[in-house]
Design goal:
heterodimer; A: 239 residues; alpha/beta; 6-stranded mixed beta sheet; 4-stranded antiparallel beta sheet; 7 helices; 26% strand; B: 224 residues; 9 helices; 0% strand
Chain lengths: 239, 224
């Protein structure tokens, strides 16, 4: 337990796997299967992602990438199999997993009749994050001039930027990005890459599912998914 | 933040969305008004019959309007997948249930104030006889309706759930509120108001039971 009077010790305790011996992986899945109706979206998926890795998931539509990210984020329960995130069980430890992870998905999860600022302040209220981080986060994604406007009037790209700003707010230990480049212009895509690198630099782990072949330069490893299965991986050094 | 603080944050957010979108004033209130006028026309011009049936018609209008209010409360969550954000937040999920119910209570009470005014004008219902009993009936009844709506509104938002299932679940479950609300309103307006205690007690018991059962059931529904 970190000393309450020592801020550095508290920060260290919050780092992935801090205080654990034997370095538990950031993500460990064993024979995870997820079936929707009669259609299997994931078939006996085994996956181990070490803390500090940036894993790139590629694959065609319907390959199971989003479902896999949903399972890791505890948004989707596996039908069979088991797994841990930071050594925490996917079911029993889901509250703590949710506290330490952020899923940026296809849908931006914003309230249309609230402004970007109000949306992010609400996120702060739910996550206990400091509201003073809202304005800098929106500035970082280039939305400061329209931060008070209702999201309903935003383009898809602007919404994606707000979703990205939500990730900036929380500095999660595990960042899960599902098609994060979709609908973004090049500067915004660069912001995504910056956030991936920043997360890794502070010891966090990132898993990115993307179709965009021009992106993923920050990845330390990539895997291919098809038919709900993970296929042999390609290792490469981070650039 | 405590579960109560989280519930308040959710209620505040829902009310802000309502103020911006004006769904109650723009859609639900005209619907309730139209319903009351249609009921009145179908019963004919007899003043005493209208006055006699007014408590029942009033509560039916409130019940149908409340179904729209519940759907609206969860539609805002479903528009861009925001509900997933609530589920993935590290908060007590019961606070989502209570926060959404609290927001709907405020919206419905505002709606009921106008609808009661309409019933006074259209059906000549005397509301000055026992205003405290009348207010008690509406507050307790509205809490019961909002809690049931908050519970099943989440179900209607879930993938693979048909929207039509919502009124099928909510309306039968709200029958005790409808019956006790009508009786208490009758007694508060045209009868001996002192006898309304048992009906108010029934409304209170319904609120307590549905909140007690609904809270863990909601958590189960959204998590599993």
């Amino acid at each position: 337990m970190a000393s309450l009077t020592d801020p550095d010790a508290l920060l260290d305790e919050h780092k992935p796997d801090a205080g654990r011996t034997g370095a538990a992986p950031a993500v460990q899945l064993r024979a995870i299967t997820r079936v929707f109706g009669v259609a299997p979206a994931l078939v006996r998926v085994d996956l181990r992602v070490e803390a500090g890795e940036v894993l790139l998931l590629r694959g065609p539509n319907g390959a199971g990438k989003s479902t896999l990210l949903g399972v890791i984020a505890t948004a989707i329960s596996p039908t069979y199999g088991s797994g841990t995130v930071f050594g925490l069980d996917l079911v029993a430890g889901r509250d703590e997993i949710r506290r330490r992870s952020e899923l940026v998905g296809h849908r931006t999860r914003l309230y249309e009749d609230l402004s970007a600022t109000e949306n992010l302040r609400f996120v702060c209220a739910l996550h206990g994050a400091d509201e003073r981080r809202v304005d800098p986060a929106l500035e970082r994604v280039g939305l400061a001039p329209v931060a008070g406007d209702r999201v309903r009037g935003y383009s898809q790209g602007m919404r994606q930027r707000v979703a990205l700003a939500r990730a900036f707010l929380r500095s999660p230990d595990l960042l899960l990005l599902d098609e994060p480049y979709a609908g973004l212009d090049d500067p915004a895509k660069d912001l995504v890459d910056e956030e991936i690198r920043a997360t890794r630099a502070r010891g966090g782990t990132v898993i990115v599912a993307t179709h965009d072949p021009t992106r993923g330069s920050a990845a330390t490893r990539s895997l291919y998914m098809d038919g709900g299965r993970l296929l042999p991986e390609l290792r490469r050094a981070a650039r | 933040m405590s579960a109560l603080g989280q519930a308040l944050a959710i209620a505040k957010k829902d009310l802000r969305i309502e103020v911006r979108g004006r769904h109650v004033a723009g859609t639900i209130l005209p619907f309730a008004g139209t319903l009351l006028i249609a009921f009145g026309l179908s019963l004919g011009p007899g003043r005493s019959l209208l006055r006699q049936t007014a408590p029942g018609l009033l509560w039916l209008a409130v019940l149908f309007a409340s179904v729209l209010a519940f759907r609206q409360a969860y539609q805002a969550e479903g528009e861009d997948g925001a509900f997933e954000s609530l589920i993935l937040a590290p908060i007590d999920k019961a606070s989502v249930f209570l926060g959404k119910a609290a927001a709907v209570v405020v919206e419905l009470l505002a709606l009921e104030a106008v609808v009661v005014g309409l019933v006074v004008v259209l059906f000549d219902l005397p509301v000055g006889h026992a205003p405290v009993v009348l207010a008690g009936a509406f507050v307790l009844g509205t809490i019961g309706l909002a809690v049931v709506g908050s519970l099943f509104g989440a179900l209607a938002e879930m993938p693979r759930t048909r929207e039509a299932i919502f009124p099928l679940l909510v309306l039968p479950l709200c029958t005790p509120v409808l019956v006790a609300g009508v009786k208490a309103t009758e007694l508060a307006t045209t009868g001996p108001a002192g006898q309304a205690g048992s009906w108010l007690g029934l409304l209170l018991a319904f609120d307590v039971v549905v909140t007690g059962v609904g809270s863990p059931l909601f958590v189960y529904l959204v998590e599993d």
